[in-house]
Amino acid sequence: MKANPNKGEKSVLAWHFCAANKRLGCVDRRKIVVGETLYVSGRPTLYEHGLHGSRRIIDASAFGFNWVSGVSYICRVRIWGCIEEQDDKLVGHYRKCLWMVPASRLVKRWYNIASLCHGGPGRRTKKGEKLLLEAAWAARREQLK
């Protein structure tokens, strides 16, 4: 298994939300560990098979964050290997977790305020994306202190 993409190989810096147990979903229950690369064999297919993520944090939040309980983690990841992509999601053979922070109540509150003020709950807006992105980077900075 490759720990990093080969020189010249297409890779995408993306966002991924994972559950409180820090494990992959569905049948594959491997643990997500910062600095480690996960690999799946077979052809990556959106919504079916492979390691997923989103270029925009607001898109990733729609797929993986539990807005009811607020329990999950925000991961900054690099995805590569036979990438398939659509507007709000991508999938590949490999996903390396670069860093991970708890998706705190602060992130939830910022997202909800942005959502309510700019188009209603669940609507993905530029302002909502900006606030969520700011919250993620603020959580990362706090983690590094």
Order of helices and strands: EEEHEEEEHH
Shape: globular
Strand content: 25-35%
What is the topology, as strand order, of the major beta sheet? 1-4-7-2
Helix content: 25-40%
What's the total helix number? 3
The low-pLDDT segments are: none
Secondary-structure content class:
alpha+beta
Overall radius of gyration: 15 Å
Biggest sheet record: 4 strands, antiparallel
Distance between the termini: 33 Å
Provide mean pLDDT, rounded.
81
How many strand elements?
7
Quick structural summary:
The protein has helices spanning 57-64, 105-117, 126-144, and strands at 11-19, 37-39, 51-53, 72-80, 84-85, 90-92, 94-102. The protein has 145 residues and is of the alpha+beta class.
Write a structural description.
The chain is built from 3 helices and 7 strands. The chain starts with 10 loop residues before the first strand and ends with a helix. The strands form 2 sheets. It has a 4-stranded antiparallel beta sheet with strand order 1-4-7-2. The longest helix is centred in the C-terminal third of the chain and has 19 residues, at 126-144. Strand 5 and strand 6 (90-92) form a beta hairpin. It has a domain at 11-103. The mean pLDDT is 81. 28% of the residues lie in helices and 26% in strands. The protein is globular. Helix 2 (105-117) packs antiparallel against helix 3. The protein is of the alpha+beta class and 145 residues long.
